[in-house]
What does this fold into?
Amino acid sequence: MDRVDRKNLVQDKEGVWWHRFGDGRRARARQSPCEQCGKVLIAYKPPRFCSDECEHLKRYGPPKRVVCAGCGREFEPDKNYRRFCSHTCAAYKMHADRPITTLAVDESCLIGKANSHYSKDERGQWWFKTETGKYRTRAVIKTCVNCGRPFLTNIFSGRWTECCSKACGMLEVHNQALGRPWGPKAGEFAAEKASGWKGGKNKKQNGYVLVYCPDHPTKVGKSKRNTYVFEHRLVMEKKLGRCLLPREQVHHKNGIRDDNRPGNLELWVKQQPTGVRVNQQQHCPTCSCFVK
It folds into this structure.
């Protein structure tokens, strides 16, 4: 950087240099050589050095060439405490001194090894590179909390990752919401742990009450999440001590389909007719017209 301001310097016809001030005054400029390179400096108050480079050479001498601790080549450091020629060498040396974060596992079932962003060096350390390939970070191997398989992730974006894929992540969120896991390794769906669970009687079909009973042989629906059985059939089975046959039906004496008291139910072996008996018909809650 040139330290001489040449904007306000003017030279007259006789070859004399003058320094012109902002108010119109002028003063004779002086000449002084640079203490390092000997360049003649013309200014009203000439500096000791013509540039910062000359001052640095005068004070500290010529730059010393040092050997990079990373790649081994010589370079001229701009600061005395620099040990590496570039940030890349410093990063590679720093990572080489650290322990390996990807311990030896069975890589035949390792998820993510086919991803182009992950690569493995000669030490067995897995690395994650960005799309441009300019930066890389250390990779770690975690175990999926849902399926139990090992997978690769990096130490920054995967710091809070606990699942190997989006599918396993959705299952894990669902498991946490229910309070009990389900899936290929956890068994059946735990509906009784859901926030809207009401004892298994939160459904009705044509006026009949359905009870959640996934292990019943005559369950309604083929899905594991929709395994319900009619409550009046369960009450009759408990009363008889056996399971009902497919041709057996349960009739409500008073015609009220959600009144599943044992005394209000009777077993039929054929298709029951519509309506109710005359002596069992209720006109009002306190009706006694047909009571014998």
